[in-house]
Amino acid sequence: MADEALRQKIDELERELEELRRKESHDSGRGPEDQDRIRHLEGEIEQTWDLIRQRGGRRDAGEDPDGASPRPVETIENYEQ
Predict the structure, then answer these.
(1) pTM listed for this prediction
(2) Exposure b/e, 26-49, CB count within 10 A at least 16 = b
(3) Who's near 81: CB < 8 A, 6+ residues apart?
(4) Which of 5, 10, 17, 61 is at a distance of 20 to 30 A from 69, taking alpha carbons?
């Protein structure tokens, strides 16, 4: 997947995330399904940004950016700490 397509995916995920958060602010709260979906979206957004960064690193190193692959969300979260 090309970098631009990955950025479009992030935009779509962020729109859905914003809609769920807006729903929370207008309703009396969100249900467990919404909470799970928000966590999933946040993880998927981080995972996609990580993939873009990997692709850039591979490109900078003269390697094929298509060789990058998504890492598990848990790996990304632990890496950032």
Answers:
(1) 0.84
(2) eeeebeeeeeeebeebebbbbbbe
(3) none
(4) 17
